[in-house]
What does this fold into?
Amino acid sequence: MISVIIPTYKNPDYLDLCLRSVIEGQTNKNEIIVVVDGFVDRSKDVLKKYKDVSVIEFEENRGIQTAMNIGVWNASNEKVLILNDDNVLPTGWDVRLEEVYDENVILTVNQIETTGPGMYRFPVIDCGQTAQTFDFEKYLQVENQLSKQEFTPDGNIFPIFLNKKWYVAVGGLDTFYNSPNWCDVDFFMKLQLIPNLSYARTHYVHIYHFGSVSTRKNGEADLFRQLEGHALQQYNYKWGYLPNLFENAMKHNNSKLPFDGQTIRGIRP
It folds into this structure.
């Protein structure tokens, strides 16, 4: 069985679609944990529809790092799938992920993006750019056509499927950052300090991704961009280098590693 962790932030329409896809698409009865990161009243009506979902509520917004950490720490299963609330899952997602699971592999689950191309080379197919215009049947058809038993080395990107112990071993997402935009980069850097872990992207399952709709829709994109610069500086303080994500992604198929010749301050591989 899998524990599915879904942090949500004043995003009820997309959360509703996400939960519908998780529940209707599963073959087994998995554990589903939704962490409501503030603005609890906005999600209540949606969550009432789904009786088998475990809900953790923060009365005040505490940030995605804390929401995700609390969700994973409360997971009952060793296999954990971490989603955004603006993700949609296909039919049979759970049995397919179980087929490709490896305890010592951190698996990025491939995504279908509405626009692009982007730096992570996700397939770009528009099945609807809002929850209201989303064409579920088109997505299922497209996802079925794209699905193949293939792994590529360009992982280290959320959403991820992993063993809970690795998330706990590195302390989850670091709440040191005052922006969510660099805590995931930091998270994968910490994982790379654990020997014998490997990283891959599975093309067996494709999650539909609307793309940060809660922050864009609620007029907070400017604030997030401002905080991103602060978080990048914090990352440099901690690790001792400033990665160029785009060039690293193109060169290494892994956007989190330093360039050739760069070192992480005080840490040897």
Remarks:
- The mean pLDDT is 88.
